[in-house]
């Protein structure tokens, strides 16, 4: 899956920033912790600075799988929570868990995920296709919202 497309759909950077804020910490704090973690894991020449973390938090870059795992460990959450933004400590998390049990919501979410996978599998898209897929995803999200509201 293309990292840039994954980031656009899931706003991973926004979720990292939310988790940092929830802990009452800063991007600099996470950078320092990431550097210590890298050294502890056997990467003595690897270091992170605030700008590195800032690029993730602004959705400019996506952390590697290893870095994502370290971020989750440092921020006391799971990689899935970082990707989806459905943090256990978030009050809306229980609502999301309840909705996952609803078959209609599940069907719509499956449709959204299939659309995202199709976008990611097709590689670089032209502007017209990107708009079309975005429109399809937005329509499916609207369907979920309308269903929940009724």
UniProtKB/TrEMBL annotation:
PROSITE patterns: HTH_CROC1
Residues in HTH cro/C1-type domain copies: 49-82
Source superkingdom: Bacteria
Protein name in UniProt: Helix-turn-helix transcriptional regulator
Provenance organism: Fodinibius salsisoli
